[in-house]
Design a protein that fits this description.
It is built from 21 helices and 17 strands. Bound molecules: iron/sulfur cluster (3 copies).
């Protein structure tokens, strides 16, 4: 075993209110400068929708991520090393400014300098690239809250998994529904961006698995931009360098939660350390599609196991990190409770941000003053307005059984809480739901506690430590498959 520690996160989508505080905080802290106008290291998408950049999930177009190479390996979808190098001077798979948006500001000065008159002055939008007036046609969250949904939501690549009838039902105006999908870099265990970079400028930190970019080494080839299937590397046109989410490592190193976690209004974000065996990356990343959620779970090692702890110590993981891994909310959500899923596991980067899927709204009717579906108090998976197929296309590479499992737990917990607080659900009904969900009372209580009443220190559990000690521990560490290396 070659045990590594990784900072990994969970976003609980049922709690996201789409306020975009996370995006604004990140922008103010890290990308509020020239050349970074279009960068949203954290963004929040409305789904169904186009996403940002538009249709980023469409790997037929972008050739991002990995694909299977034989039974027990993966290769970059964009091609081998020669294929990648041939793209250095002409890379057709790069997003253009139209796939992002032309950043703009307003001529606020016109408001103050306008002469006295009968009409109110206006501040016209001007491009932040050219300084000239523009007609704003798109933005980073242009289809937010289903705005322009007839035009935008219908182009969501995830809808390809649905039949024409299912698509029409989902997009019917009177039934339309949506949820928010916050996204950051996934700090993948098998990062395509790292493997694609010919300069070794993007690397995976040995001590905590954060994937960061070294501007000194970056030559601006942009192969990281095209190879990241989540489109979470951005090119700075002013500096000629690639940039991405840094996991707020300066904050983490001084004992603070990442800014987008600390500021999250809905308290949807959880973060902790997980341990994994780096010798298994190729095998797990190359599993058949239906098995990729199980592969993501299999990657995580049990931090309570004496064997794992011994192997971790032998690999240089400190006791403080092992202790943090034991208290990791991420491990609980992903492995202990089987409640959180990876985003697009079929990209095979083994992403280290997981999602508790959003509870599905249902078609309700009032009966004796109680809101019921045709099947009971809450929606069954079959009667929900967002087809399970759509959720499976996002979070389980189409495996509907894997996508359904967290829902059974979420619904069982809802029924239990309803029985406790309102009393109109029978104990038998709750017991049946617990059995169907394979959920114990203790786990239900722990999930309820963590997702309802928790404080920031319960949601973000990171070990104390310094970069200097970490480098000593991890001298010679590698990052993922490919020609990655640990950076300084
Ligand atoms: Fe982040 Fe993974 Fe994309 Fe690299 S491949 S930028 S680690 S999401
Ligand atoms: Fe931005 Fe920090 Fe959040 Fe990354 S972790 S998206 S750098 S605020
Ligand atoms: Fe969602 Fe939290 Fe971001 Fe608000 S701050 S949009 S609740 S993730």
């Amino acid at each position: 075993m070659d045990v590594r520690a990784q900072i990994a996160s969970v976003f609980h989508l049922d709690k996201c209110i789409g306020c975009h505080t996370c995006s604004v905080v990140c922008k103010n802290l890290w990308t509020n400068r020239e050349g970074a106008e279009h960068m949203w290291w954290n963004n929040v998408e409305a789904r169904p929708g186009l996403g940002y950049p538009r249709r980023w999930e469409d790997q037929e177009k972008w050739s991002g991520g990995w694909e299977k190479d034989g039974d027990d390996g993966v290769k970059l979808k964009a091609g081998g090393r020669l294929g990648m190098l041939s793209r250095i001077f002409h890379n057709p798979a790069l997003p253009t400014i139209d796939d992002y948006y032309e950043p703009w500001t307003y001529q606020y000065k016109d408001l103050f300098d306008a002469p006295l008159g009968d009409t109110s002055p206006t501040a016209r939008p001007v491009s932040r690239l050219t300084g000239k007036p523009i007609d704003v046609k798109s933005g980073p969250n242009w289809d937010d809250d289903l705005a322009g949904s007839k035009e935008h939501a219908a182009k969501d690549p995830g809808l390809d998994a649905l039949t024409a009838t299912e698509r029409a039902a989902l997009l019917a105006t009177e039934r339309m529904t949506y949820f928010h999908l916050p996204r950051t870099c996934n700090h993948c265990a098998n990062p395509a961006c790292v493997a694609a970079c010919p300069s070794g400028a993007i690397y995976k930190r040995g001590e905590d698995g954060l994937v960061v970019s070294n501007p000194e080494a970056c030559r601006g080839w942009r192969l990281c931009v095209s190879s990241c299937p989540y489109k979470k590397v951005f090119f700075n046109h002013a500096t000629g360098k690639s940039e991405k989410c840094i996991g707020c490592y300066p904050r983490i190193e001084s004992g603070e939660a990442p800014a987008c976690f600390a500021s999250c209004v809905g308290r949807i974000r959880f973060q902790g350390v997980v341990l994994y065996d780096a010798t298994r990356l190729a095998e797990l990343a190359s599993r058949p599609e239906h098995d990729l959620v199980a592969a993501a779970r299999d990657l995580l090692l049990d931090p309570e196991s004496p064997e794992v702890q011994a192997a971790a110590r032998a690999s240089g993981v400190s006791d403080a990190v092992i202790d943090a891994a034991k208290r990791s909310p991420t491990y609980s959500f992903v492995k202990r409770w089987n409640l959180a899923l990876p985003l697009h596991p079929e990209f095979r980067t083994l992403p280290m941000v997981f999602y508790v899927p959003p509870l599905l709204p249902f078609v309700s009717e009032k009966e004796d003053g109680i809101t019921r579906t045709a099947d009971g108090l809450f929606a069954t998976l079959e009667s929900s307005r967002v087809p399970l197929k759509y959720i499976a296309a996002l979070f389980s590479a189409g495996n509907e059984a894997e996508a359904a499992a967290p829902y059974r737990k979420l619904l069982a917990i809802r029924l239990w809480r309803r029985a406790e607080t309102v009393g109109d659900v029978s104990r038998d009904e709750v017991a049946r739901a617990f059995i169907a969900a394979d959920l114990t009372q203790d786990d239900a209580a722990a999930i309820h506690e963590l997702t309802t009443f928790s404080r920031l220190e319960d949601r973000v559990v990171l070990p104390p430590g310094t970069r200097a000690e970490a480098l000593e521990e991890w001298d010679g560490a590698q990052g993922g498959i490919g020609f990655a290396r640990a950076g300084a």
